[in-house]
Write a structure and sequence with these properties.
Elements lengths: L1 H24 L2 E9 L7 E8 L8 H15 L4 E4 L13 H13 L6 E3 L3 H4 L3 H10 L8 E7 L2 E7 L22 E4 L13 E5 L8 E2 L3 E2 L13 E4 L3 E5 L17 E9 L3
Parallel strand pairs: 1-13, 2-3, 3-4, 6-7, 7-8, 8-12
Antiparallel strand pairs: 2-13, 5-6, 9-10, 11-12
């Protein structure tokens, strides 16, 4: 009888774990609001979509991601932020050059919605120069340690893209003078970049997958970032920065998510005193 109860318990745990993993792997929209108070900036309210860590393979993965982008567009964001890690493990890809190009083409499907893009560590380690060349050839703007003034929802904002800290591409650059009285935000891949000297303000990042496998009480088994643990998933605020870290869409190393939902994020973002 005791052995039977143990078998039943193990079976129940296995069924629960499988159901949880399958749910966490199904990408959902995560909605939230961020109010960012910034002095000397006109009040502005916009909808921002954040997409990160898609880790795309060939074929069906591209098709599935295009459907996800259709969902994003149907929610009418004013700006889309893509925060890195667009490609999966090279061992799973037959034609890397073609796949890289196909990934960037999916981003063009967001037109005419403005977008800001940075590379992640997986991208930097899979033909970094080729990523830059393909983005340029396909006329898709890519940011690395630089800023752009963008027209968003009839207003002008300043977007800074900082290189990925994890792959040693981070370099601090301040906002240019022309951004002084504009709403400002920063995107980067590894949230550690938000804690480097000089970085303040509103920042969006990814990279961590919110641990990808995270147990109750214990928390994530591993978080691949030197950022403070409470600043590696979701919304974090301190006296210098407001940081949002997306859980991301895909997986890395193993195709499992547990306690870390696959998400893209739709954020009602306000600047100033709205």
């Amino acid at each position: 009888m005791k052995i039977l109860l143990i078998v039943i318990l193990i079976a129940f745990i296995a069924i629960y774990f499988r159901a949880s993993v399958l749910k966490n792997l199904k990408t959902e929209m995560n909605s939230l609001q961020i109010d960012f108070k910034e002095t000397d900036v006109s009040a502005l309210s916009i909808k921002v979509a954040v997409i990160g860590d898609i880790h795309l393979g060939e074929g069906k993965d591209i098709t599935k991601f295009l459907k996800l982008l259709d969902e994003v567009k149907s929610n009418n964001p004013d700006l889309v932020l893509l925060v890195g890690d667009y490609i999966t493990d090279l061992r799973k890809i037959k034609d890397v050059d073609s796949h890289r190009r196909n990934i960037i083409k999916t981003f063009k499907s967001l037109d005419p919605i403005p977008r800001a893009i940075v590379l992640g560590n997986h991208d930097n380690y899979t033909g970094r120069k080729k990523w830059f060349a393909e983005f340029k050839d396909l006329e898709v703007d890519l940011l690395e340690n630089e800023s752009r003034i963008m027209n968003v929802a009839g207003a002008v904002i300043c977007v800074r893209g900082l290189g990925d800290y994890n792959s040693h591409r981070f370099k601090f650059v301040d906002y240019p003078e022309e951004c002084k009285n504009l709403p400002k935000l920063t995107i980067t891949h590894d949230p550690q970049g938000a804690f480097e000297p000089g970085v303040e303000g509103l920042i969006f990042a990814g990279h961590t997958h919110c641990g990808q496998v995270s147990f109750p009480v214990i928390g994530p088994l591993k978080v691949p970032s030197k950022a403070p643990r409470d600043a590696t998933c979701g919304l974090y605020k301190d006296s210098k920065r407001t940081l949002f870290v997306t859980s991301g869409v895909g997986t890395s190393i193993v195709p499992i998510r547990y306690g870390a939902q696959s998400n893209w994020d739709l954020i009602d973002l306000s600047f100033g005193d709205i």
